[in-house]
Write a structure and sequence with these properties.
It catalyses: S-sulfanyl-L-cysteinyl-[protein] + uridine(34) in tRNA + AH2 + ATP = 2-thiouridine(34) in tRNA + L-cysteinyl-[protein] + A + AMP + diphosphate + H(+). Helix 1 crosses helix 6. The longest helix has 20 residues. Among the domains are: about 150 residues, Rossmann fold; about 60 residues, SH3 type barrels. A 6-stranded antiparallel barrel has the order 12-15-14-13-16-17. A 5-stranded parallel beta sheet has the order 3-2-1-4-7, with helices on both faces. The protein is globular and about 65 Å long. Helix content is about 25%, strand content about 30%. The protein has 7 helices and 17 strands.
Length: about 375
């Protein structure tokens, strides 16, 4: 097969490209230029997509002896990921830009361009597995599963892939742990074998999300109130807060009962942040929209595992599809579920699909 290997300049994508070549595929390395003003050097493990990263990817391609190109997708990334991130926070929601990037850039823009140029598939360095299984009709289908290395598993951020995209995607690292990947990279002579992993939000390399949002949206002072409307403090922008947050509230009035306070709601229309005790955070019912299925949509009510954070715990639940929406009922209450986050559903290790959380609440009929 003719395969585009997405090469970020890191160790994971380098080994992924090498493994695709070892498997006998015709491989072309592609680095995605996602920044309209890329920094020359990476200053820390935060961020990515610097000119240095592009150079690292090119050096790996040279070692492998494969063609290498840089594809400019900065405008698309700015529109579909950065502007979406800013708009979601302005609306009082908490988005996950990595899911949006996978959906809109790596497995839409990149895959679409690759197919248009005559390639058959895209390979990335994500930690996840593609398993071929026999369907009820006797045909073979490709399923997305968790990686062997639970600490590095990235199936959550790939839950936005649909069946057609999954059919043309390869994740060569899913059966390997990160230490093994680094050893393999060193054995192959890759300069990036010990390069630090990038983390956090790539377009906010200093890690200061609140500061970035304030620069983008401007300071908008407002009230921090409790559930009955009593003013407890002031904030500089409701967009800087998310449900479940405890740190950085700077409340002027301590709680009379001595219990810590958490953000329980963000009201962008009133520019208010509502705080309360931990018991107000517990929810067991989630409504999601923009449902994406990695295979057939659930037929009726199904028992699933639900995960609401990239490296969070999986919770037992039931779920059912309703057009573009999905309803999830958790077997127990969980805290800190914010609109804008994604809920990803699992059947064992298999990813069923995902949805963007529109609302979360406590369904008292389900409370023991």
């Amino acid at each position: 097969m003719r395969v585009v290997a997405a090469m970020s300049g890191g160790v994971d994508s380098a080994v992924a490209a090498a493994r695709m070549l070892d498997a006998g595929h015709e491989v072309v390395g592609v680095h995605l230029a996602l920044s309209q003003s890329a920094a020359t050097l990476r200053e820390s493990a935060r961020g990515c997509c610097t000119i240095e990263d592009a150079g690292d990817a090119r050096r790996v391609a040279d070692v492998l002896g494969i063609p290498f190109y840089v594809w400019d997708m900065a405008a698309r990334f700015q529109r579909d990921v950065v502007e979406d991130f800013r708009a979601e926070y302005a609306a009082g929601r908490t988005p996950n830009p990595c899911l949006r990037c996978n959906e809109k850039i790596k497995f839409a823009a990149l895959l679409d361009k690759a197919l248009a140029l005559g390639f058959d598939a895209v390979a990335t360095g994500h930690y996840a597995r593609v398993v071929e299984a026999t369907g009820a009709d006797g045909g073979v289908r490709r399923e997305l599963h968790r990686a062997v290395d639970a600490a590095k598993d990235q199936s959550y951020v790939l839950g936005v892939l649909d069946a057609e995209q999954l059919a043309r995607s390869f994740f060569p690292l899913g059966d390997t742990t990160k230490p093994e990947i680094r050893r393999e990279a060193a054995e192959r002579g890759f300069y990036v074998a010990n390069k630090p992993d990038s983390h956090d939000i790539c377009f906010i390399p200093d890690g200061d999300t609140r500061g970035w949002l304030t620069r983008q949206l401007g300071a908008k002072p407002g009230e921090i109130v409790d559930s009955d409307g009593t003013v407890l403090g002031e904030h500089q922008g409701a967009f800087a807060y998310t449900v479940g947050q405890r740190r950085g509230l700077a409340l002027g009035r301590p709680a009379s009962d001595g219990q810590p306070r958490y953000v329980v709601e963000v009201r962008p229309e009133a520019n208010q942040v509502v705080v309360g005790t931990a018991d107000l955070l517990g929810v067991n019912a989630i409504t999601g929209d923009h449902a994406r299925w990695c295979g057939p949509a659930p037929d009726g009510v199904v028992h699933v595992g639900a995960q609401v954070r990239a490296h969070g715990e999986e919770y037992a639940a039931t779920a059912w599809a309703d057009g573009d929406r999905v309803e999830v009922r958790l077997d127990s209450r969980i805290r800190g579920v914010a609109p804008g986050q994604s809920v990803v559903l699992y059947d064992g290790t298999r990813v069923v699909g995902s949805a963007t959380i529109a609302a979360a609440r406590l369904d008292r009929e389900r409370v023991p």
